[in-house]
Amino acid sequence: MRLKTVFVLFVILFVLRVLLAAQIDPDVIYYNGNIATLDAQESFVEAVAVKDGKFLKVGSTDELKKLASSTTRMVDLGGKTVVPGLIDGHCHPMEAMMMKETWVDCRYPETGSVKEALKHIVAWVKNTPKGEWIFAACVSASENKFKEKRMPTRLELDKAAPDNPILVANGTHMGVANSAALKKLGIIKGMRKLPHGGSVILDKNGEPTGVLTDAQADVPTTPTVAQLEKYYTNDIQEFWNSYGFTSFMAITPGAALPVLQKVAGSKIKPTMRYTISVWTSANAKDMPENLSKFRMPQSADLAWYRFAAIKVWIDGENDCRTGYMYGPYVGHFDTDPPGDKGTLVTPQSMADRFAVISAKNGLISMMHCSGDKATDIGLAAYEKQMKSKSKPKLMRMEHFGMFQLTDKQLRRAKAMTGKGFKISVQPTWLLDLVKADYENMGTKRTRTGFKFRSMIDAGLEPAAGTDVTGIYLDNVNPFLAIYSSVTRNSDDGVFEPQEAITVTEALKMWTIWPAKAMGEGNIKGSIELGKYADMAVLSDNIFTIPKEDLKEVKVLKTIVGGDVVYHAN
Questions:
Q1: Is the pLDDT of residue 477 over 50?
Q2: Domain total for the chain?
Q3: 363 near 310, Cβ under 8 Å?
Q4: Do residues 340 and 329 make contact, with C-beta atoms less than 8 angstroms apart?
Q5: How would you classify the pairing of strands 364-368 and 395-398?
Q6: Cis before residue 109, ω within 30 degrees of 0?
Q7: What integer is the mean pLDDT of 264-283?
């Protein structure tokens, strides 16, 4: 009897040992690296152990090698610098693929003039059936960058595409349509507003000039279901993974969301973590009170797909002179809205309603604010919401202070830190838009933009985003942004050098701070126990190389959940 009891105890102990070993044995150990954890102490380690897609332990190579079992994969990092998986805090992945693959490329500097742009359009028309929509992409502020210092006119587009409706986008907040497109959209004499928030610019006789502002939801640009499935299952992930990204705030049109929901509910294994923000129209007039239809299906894995936010545009953008300002823009362009002070897309009352909807649904509120007057509208809506009984989970202001930021606005924002207020910024725009800002707004107002040092000192923890839509495809490169943030180099020389930040701060803008701004700082953004095992292996040590070389840094490997999902070459 005793032998039987001893045998049973032996079996139990053996099983427990096996089970315990299965729980502790790492799936993979990455060792011999220079790993920046970005934990509270900003510590560096040599190795990390991963179990079930999460960090099991961090420490020295010798220490972690002792954890390895016969089934543990061992990966030598070769002394390379490793950082937490990069997080794009604000981007438009579906639109980026759509513009990249299906729009006429009229982007500066490869396309340097209106004349060249029209040639590209004419060539495209030859291979397009009559009556089919054509879209062309020009970079933001093309009216400043093209040789002619303007955009193509409606009449020029009529001549280039007489039998096709066409819209030539100047960035994403303003475009020029030809007569066929105006007819297709039902735009007639005297009509100033479109159903979903867009505006129509009229001439002195009330005739449409062809210029449309913030007409994102009024022009039918949604790709086919087949194209969307391809984007969401392959193209988007491959594009962002190649730059070290493991997660992003994917701002998604409501019309395309059902396809993403279908992909999320399938068994296809993703390589990017989708935190999803939905928009329905520029002014969110048709945003439903109950947002349950935007939820991910029950079969979706929340580690990869999460509906978290809704977005609205308060105004356009200063780079195309539609950002809503207190004072007029410098000079006058034919594409300017009436009054030369930009475009108000969403008035205060509707901004207030938007904040209430997000609060009732327990979601993040995202307000696009570019001009100084639009920023005040967004701040006022959030200040009001903070005093109410139903505060949103997080209250974000997108593009905060990119073009304009007054001292008073910075103080108002600082007063809301720790109360759910977060900001999103786009550092790469320093390399694209400073020269245009000077031309559009003058020296005094331009010098108030891109104040990253001031934002950080105020405790705002700016979350960086590429804002990639397909207009500036190179902006997906976070190391261009880190370079510009640290050196303050711009497309117009060194810009406000006192606003420079450190490499570590610039890296936090692409890791832990966007994680917090997405309500996910506890599960991603740094290399710590229990967080998702997401990392990027870099070609250079960004903490020691000359600042000028930051723009040349490449990603060698992107690791998501402990698995390599991108390998250079």
A1: yes
A2: 1
A3: yes
A4: yes
A5: parallel
A6: yes
A7: 95
